[in-house]
Amino acid sequence: MKNKTGLLVWIFTGFIISVGLMALYSASYHNIRVTNKVFYDQLFCSIFGFALMFLLSRLDYRKFYDFSYILYWAINILLLFVLISGRHALGAQRWISIGGISFQPSELAKLALILALGRYFSDTKASPITFGATDFWQRLWRGLALPLLLTLLPVILIFKEPDLGTALLFMGIFLFMLFASGLRYRYFAGFLGFCIALVPFGWHILKDYQKDRLLVFLNPNIDPLGAGYTIIQSKIAIGAGQLFGKGWLSGTQNQLNFLPERHTDFIFSVIGEEWGIFGAIFLLLCFFVLIYCGLGIAEQVKDEFGRQVCVGIVGILTLQVVINIGMVLGLCPVVGLTLPLVSYGRSSFMIFIIMMGFLLSLSNQSNV
């Protein structure tokens, strides 16, 4: 490796993936509901992913600048195709199959949006908005409205699948990159306040099960055998782990099938039950190091496109870790977001592997 930061990205990505593989093996151990296929799938993706990370680390990230908009529009076409003829599963229409391979375009859209916004902000170098300027509306359009429209297109398509969690995550990506674009703080705060003010009006466009999840977040006991069941069992599992956990393959909530979705959205519950607080803290520290390295790379990258892409990657990694662990602990509503590089899911896993490869490329090119 050319630098210490890149080496840390390699090491701690490996740690996180290893923790995830151990948790997946446990979640599928002698289990008829969750077979060991999920473990072997993730193991194969891990081996392939490390090779892909290596290849991406050797590429110049600037090569992706030229086709960032092409990728953005191609993914939006795929998102539209999902709504027309996508595969239904778990009450949603989020998957398509090409050549026998099933994947979620919404996961690909995460990277596509980051690259598109990165190119846009690097091209425009959005000027600070100042009242009284003769070109105020032009600056407002270029600095805020147009990139917002770029973001809203995939947000609307993904929300219609329906996938509220990923749609909101895209708005989070936009806010991170908008903040890094140079928009003055008071106008950024004003836009953020406007978004928050619109939240109550969003209640009427939610589906019934989404409303149930929000109500259960406020009080899981209102539906302990329905929408609140997973949250209650998740809290029991994590609490049962105490300091050192019950041991690998020994978690009762996990092994006795009390914990639904333990191989995907709620895999952190398996880690908390079997490895305790210390195991959970170790995983959080690994994520913290990755995020810290990403911020360091963003600070050192020489061009605006690379800096914005790095900010977008760090932003989505931070948001998805915080939201996933928050919902597992009952601190956030259940919105169906995976724990990056840990939860089972080939589309999600490979996109975050690609993002780590981008960080390595950015690190190498910036000579941190």
Give the H and E element order: HHHEEEHHHHHHHHHH
- N/C terminus separation: 11 Å
Number of strands: 3
Overall pLDDT metric: 86
Strand order of the main beta sheet, please?
Answer: 1-2-3
Our Rg estimate from Cα atoms comes to 21 Å
Low-pLDDT runs: none
> What structural class results from the helix and strand content?
mainly alpha
Q: Helical amount among residues, as a percent range?
A: 55-70%
Biggest pleated-sheet summary: 3 strands, antiparallel
Shape: globular
How many structurally independent domains? 1
Percentage of residues in strands: under 5%
Tally of DSSP helical segments: 13
Task: Provide tags for this entry.
368 residues; mainly alpha; 13 helices; 67% helix; 4% strand
Outline the structure in words.
The structure is a single chain. This protein has 13 helices and three strands, in the order αααβββαααααααααα. It has helices spanning 4-27, 37-58, 68-85, 105-124, 136-159, 164-180, 185-198, 208-218, 229-241, 252-255, 267-300, 304-328, 346-366; strands spanning 87-89, 92-98, 101-103. The mean pLDDT is 86. The longest helix has 34 residues, at 267-300. The chain has one domain (4-366). By secondary structure, it is mainly alpha-helical.
Could you give a short description of this structure?
The chain has 368 residues and is mainly α. Helices cover 67% and strands 4% of the residues.
Furnish the topology, listing elements before pairings.
Elements lengths: L3 H24 L9 H22 L9 H18 L1 E3 L2 E7 L2 E3 L1 H20 L11 H24 L4 H17 L4 H14 L9 H11 L10 H13 L10 H4 L11 H34 L3 H25 L17 H21 L2
Antiparallel strand pairs: 1-2, 2-3
